[in-house]
Amino acid sequence: MTDPTNSNTDAAAPMAARSSMPGREPSSLFRFEYAPALESTAVVSLQPSYGLFIGGRFVKPKNGGSFVTINPATEAPLAQIALADEADVDAAVRAARRAFRSWSALAGKERAKYLYRIARVLQERGREFAVLESMNGGKPIKESRDVDIPLAAAHFFHYAGWADKLEYAFAGRTPQPLGVAGQVIPWNFPLLMAAWKLAPALACGNTVVLKPAETTPLTALLLAEVMQEIDLPPGVVNIITGAGATGAALVGHKGIDKVAFTGSTAVGKQIQSAIAGSGKRLTLELGGKAANIIFEDAAIDQAVEGIVNGIYFNQGHVCCAGSRLLVQESVAELVVSRLLRRIETLRVGDPLDKNTDVGAINSQAQLDKIRCLVQAGVAEGATLHQSAWPLPDKGYFFAPTVFTDVAQSHRIAREEIFGPVLSVLTFRTPDEAVQKANNTPYGLSAGIWSEKSSRVLWMAEKLRAGVVWANTFNRFDPTSPFGGYKESGFGREGGRHGLAAYCQFAEDQAGAST
Amino acid sequence: MLGGLVTHAGEALGNEQMVDDRDEPVAHLPVGSITVMAALVARSNPPDWVRAFAAGAVRIPAVDAVGLEARAAALTGRSIKKASKIAALRLAIECMDLTTLEGTDTPGKVRAMCAKAVQPDPRDASIPSVAAVCVYPELVAIAKHSLQGSGVKVASVAGAFPSGLGPLPTRLDEIRRAIDAGADEIDIVLNRSAFLAGDLARAFDDIAASKLACGAAHLKVILEAGELGTYDNVRRASMLAMAAGGDFIKTSTGKIGVNATPPFALLMSEAIRDHFEQTGVKVGLKLAGGIRTAKQSWQYLVIVNETLGPDWLTPHLFRLGASSLLNDVLMQLRMQATGLYQRPDDFTVD
């Protein structure tokens, strides 16, 4: 960059290079590299192995089974995790059942105190939770730090507020707890999904057996330590770890009254048929293939940011991800060129680097699935565009990807990829946008980008999706209900609506013959 | 690829003709029409784009305030450490317009500031000079003399700064006098009165006439973004100032409450990118007002880096207008070198 022989060569130019900055030629650009800015992992103290959290204590699994959880960004093992089998699930459900009587009898304002304590500890230990979440799940530290952990705390705060006001949540009806809830949560937002599940259940007076995903159990186990720290009565929250078989044992257990599941549509369907006729209540929050719809009058630069946030946030491991871009044909070229330029600036790499925008894919299995669907996209004739950002040698990474020339019939336009892969389709009129957006088995979310509010409202009415964002995407708030249409599931989480999934009503029972 | 339309116009005319132009009063050109623009169109490249702009055919996308501010906040959240911090801070100095614009400015103060501009840190000769000093027209000659041979440019505000509401002939005369006194760069203000009244042609013509008056000197157009009321207006004003021949667009005078902000920097960078895509002409960005800390300076460099790219990370196309910023940057550079913060008194106050 500093070649003294080059000084003054630019003297004829109107704003010549000065002698104090020799050789500042167009060919020797200043490259603004960002030095690594790693969040320290010292705040996290991992144990070599973790037991099951049953009845307020960490206990060894009855058959001694275990599995290893890793850091997907490095493939290095982090800890040995207990594998719960049917006997362990039974112990956990019995602990929850024992705790139910006193927990449900506790005054709402007393239950609220525990929830407030959880929320406060999540805030106090926020950095620890954020670092651990990024280590175990691969998500960028700026997301776990700024989104996952604060939102998890906010959910506990929100439902703490409801605990002593339940009778006001449902006019003319008297809410009562259901009993024991079996909750199975996914790996994309491990702590946040635990908060979504636990907070309303506990506020309504239920007790819980929670199973985190097998690839991301660590923040849930740290949350179990928090439950001990705040003296939550034993058995109110039980956390058991394991894979699909553990989850199946939990939802199939006779001692639970309610199943709440967030995850894939395939597993959701299995659960629904497995518990049919059992009398268990069920809420499912499943997959999605959301349309992010850009009209020609949209604020284009902000829409491009919304597209990026819609599909590359959390590596696209978001059930409500805006994975189908529907862009009005008149601005399609402009939007796509901006987008392709923008993805080159996404920094892919170490999740613990504060400047990382896209972290690691959660597991080898998920990476394989993404690769398989991307290959299908190429084979079906769509045009592949990928960021040239260098990927780390180790760990599971996938470059931010855009497909153009996508048809509605392509697999990449219909199937949930759950990765950083966007399919671009075009439309000509608002009617066509609605038709294409709704033409999917799913219906979890949608986005509309337009400066014309009458059109936004018209669209929002016609889109069959549980959440419709206008001029934003992937924004979450504990006061706002979240859930799907069609194969995206049923039931709502969040807000006042989220309480209904964990209550029964005295009036209903009085009228029922059973 | 330096500068805007009239850079080419000047080349086309040749220097002699430019001198002739400057000797003639430009005020005879009808104002409030597109006559000046038409004159430019005839001589400039690419004329089609200016014509399209005048006809309203150039697309100026809407701005969503929430999204703009969120993106600006995300960019300012970049964590700049170690080697990248040092490189950014050195670049911030190289791109700095060291500024004094007070009614109390004296030759003595300007001379002292010029010495600082050439050698910001007397204890460390490796620290580069700043890009320019920025003063009122009356002090241009003093600055020019003080900076002789240093390579540091002299920028002068002109054109009834900071309101811009003097008579146009007076404003143009002020520009010419500043240039005659030795100014290399002229910072004028957008005619916000005309702009906000909807008289875009007049706002355009004022800038175009100022550009003619500048001749070879570079013209920076201050939008005074904090007075324009909406981000949409800031984008519109940016496009207008670039179409009219501004070589730089600049956020603020530093004379009102709201000055340079990350959203303004991002938005104006996007407008510059749009203009470049439409015309192939690279217009510069100057951020001024309220930039006091080293951290702010690298935050702005990040915004430019990730919006316009490394081509703009040069004093030819990026400036930070500031007065107290320099010492904070020096203090941070010393901190990076020694691991210790020095006392404020270890840096010269000029």
From TrEMBL, chain A:
- Coiled coil, from the record: none
Task: Kindly indicate whether the keyword Oxidoreductase belongs to this entry.
Answer: yes
Keyword Oxidoreductase listed: yes
Q: Which UniProt keywords apply?
A: Oxidoreductase
Ranges for domain Aldehyde dehydrogenase: 59-505
Q: What InterPro entries would the database entry show?
A: Ald_DH/histidinol_DH, Ald_DH_C, Ald_DH_CS_GLU, Ald_DH_N, Aldehyde_DH_dom
Ranges of Low complexity compositional bias?
Answer: 11-22
| Gene3D superfamilies referenced in this protein's UniProt entry, alphabetically | Aldehyde Dehydrogenase, Chain A, domain 1, Aldehyde Dehydrogenase, Chain A, domain 2
PROSITE patterns documented for this protein: ALDEHYDE_DEHYDR_GLU (PS00687)
Q: Spell out the residue ranges making up region: Disordered.
A: 1-24
- Polar residues biased stretches: 1-10
One GO molecular-function entry: oxidoreductase activity, acting on the aldehyde or oxo group of donors, NAD or NADP as acceptor
Similarity comment: family membership: Belongs to the aldehyde dehydrogenase family.
- The name under which this protein is listed is Unannotated protein
Organism from which the protein derives = freshwater metagenome
Q: What is the lineage of its organism?
A: unclassified sequences, metagenomes, ecological metagenomes
From TrEMBL, chain B:
* Reaction(s) this enzyme catalyzes, per UniProt: 2-deoxy-D-ribose 5-phosphate = D-glyceraldehyde 3-phosphate + acetaldehyde
List, in alphabetical order, the Gene Ontology terms for molecular function in this entry.
deoxyribose-phosphate aldolase activity
Q: Which organism is it from?
A: freshwater metagenome
Pfam families per record: DeoC
Q: From the Swiss-Prot or TrEMBL record, give the protein name.
A: deoxyribose-phosphate aldolase
Q: What is its EC number?
A: 4.1.2.4
Gene Ontology cellular-component annotations = cytoplasm
Q: Which family does it belong to?
A: Belongs to the DeoC/FbaB aldolase family. DeoC type 2 subfamily.
**Top-tier EC class:** lyase
The protein's matches in Gene3D superfamilies, at most eight in alphabetical order, are given as: Aldolase class I (3.20.20.70)
To which pathway does this protein belong?
Answer: Carbohydrate degradation; 2-deoxy-D-ribose 1-phosphate degradation; D-glyceraldehyde 3-phosphate and acetaldehyde from 2-deoxy-alpha-D-ribose 1-phosphate: step 2/2
- What keywords are assigned to this protein? Lyase, Schiff base
Cross-referenced InterPro entries? Aldolase_TIM, DeoC, DeoC/FbaB/LacD_aldolase
Q: One biological-process term from Gene Ontology?
A: carbohydrate catabolic process
